[in-house]
Amino acid sequence: MNNVVDDLVFRVDPAKINTSNVYPALDEVELAKSYATLCSIDLRSEAKTKKTKSSELTYIPWSSVWAEIKKVEPTARYNVYPQIMDNFGNTRFWHDDGKSGWVEVGVSIKGLEHVMTLAVMDFRNQSIPAENITSTDANKSMMRCLVKACAMHGIGMYIYKGEEIPDNEREVLTLQNECYELVVKKCALSEKAKSTVGDLCKASEVEADPLLPEDAITGNPKNIRDAEVLTKLKKQLMAVRK
User: Is the CB of residue 156 less than 8 Å from the CB of residue 150?
Assistant: First the structure.
């Protein structure tokens, strides 16, 4: 089945939700780590600009955002909250109040869900009267709302704020990527080199965060957010030989 379909859950009656799949109590440390990781993903190269006579809209394609989230958080889900249309429980995936329409989409990561709304709009970025809304209009707004909800978890937030990535964030991001590339390169040399690389990365994680629980140590340099530690790790990785 298509992964996008697998990730989509329509919620109608909370009583019918399978509670066996509900996450345990929220882990503040893990949520903070997830937010920091998603914030560090630079999607500006994926950003598109749509111009109208009166405005200029910058957006990120939903497929790019969701692909990056699933790399970092494979259990992430998004939920579409429909409007119940009658007493029989029939639903429609967009809402309207007789004047205009909107969609509601929530994104859940590690048990934390952020739910956002977005008006159903036309190509001029103007609200469409309720009686003129088509399923195509609503579907486009639904996927845009998905990106908006994802941003609440950190990814693409800079695009919405209209800001450049701060210099310190840029430095950390660059070092993370450089270290990660070195990890891949050095691990391919031999089993001995692979073991050495793993030990160096895990030791660096602990150095960057001495309070990190043992079961949270991954050996992934992209989880390290201390530029000084990353710089040191980079030098150590470069020195690894076969």
Answer: yes
Pair (120, 140) in one structural domain:
yes
Task: Assess whether 59 and 83 both reside in one domain.
Answer: yes
Model pLDDT, residue 32: 87
Q: How far apart are CA 166 and CA 173, in angstroms?
A: 11
Domain count, the chain: 2
Query: Averaged over 43-62, what is the pLDDT?
Result: 74
Are 48 and 111 in a shared domain?
Answer: yes
Instruction: Quote the domain boundaries for residue 229.
Output: 167-238
Question: Cα separation of 80 and 149, whole Å?
Answer: 11
Side chain identity, residue 127: S
pTM for this prediction: 0.58
Q: Do 134 and 173 fall within a single domain? A: no
pLDDT per residue over 96-140, tens digit each? 988 999 999 999 999 899 999 999 998 877 889 999 999 999 999
CB atoms within 10 A of CB 28: 9
* 159-205 pLDDT per residue, tens: 766 544 545 566 777 888 889 889 999 999 999 999 999 999 999 99
